[in-house]
Specification:
Layout: H1 12-15, H2 21-29, H3 35-45, H4 57-77, H5 106-114
Helix pairs in contact: 4-5
Length: 116
């Protein structure tokens, strides 16, 4: 039998379980991006050609990360044997920078949740 869940978005604190707080704060501030903020993103956090900034980026990373966290919790609690987050698996993101179209490493966040 299939069960579908509508997960909540990950919190800033949950994102910071793996990611550097300065990096998460930068992602949060990417609303109405100005040229100064984009320069900071390129210089400090590897934003650019393979990690473009787009409207709603912070909400997007919070949503797919939250889905992976919910999946990990359901697995850890034994309430499901299989959990799939079709929007997740963005494993190239590093602790303090984007990489390979990945902004937040939801896989590391989920693994940390499973290890609790």
């Amino acid at each position: 039998m299939d069960h579908f869940f509508s997960p909540r978005s990950a919190t800033q604190a949950e994102l910071e379980e793996y990611h550097d707080p300065d990096y998460v704060d930068f992602l949060r501030r990417l609303v109405g991006v100005g040229s100064g903020l984009m320069k900071e993103g390129q210089d400090c956090f590897n934003f650019g050609e393979d990690c473009p900034v787009f409207d709603g980026l912070y909400d997007f990373v919070r949503q797919y990360s939250g889905a992976s966290l919910v999946a990990a919790r359901k697995l850890a609690q034994g309430t499901t044997d299989i959990a799939i987050n079709w929007s997740g698996g963005l494993h190239h993101a590093k602790k303090a920078e984007a990489s390979g179209f990945c902004y937040v490493n939801d896989i590391v966040l989920a693994i940390l949740e499973l290890l609790r």
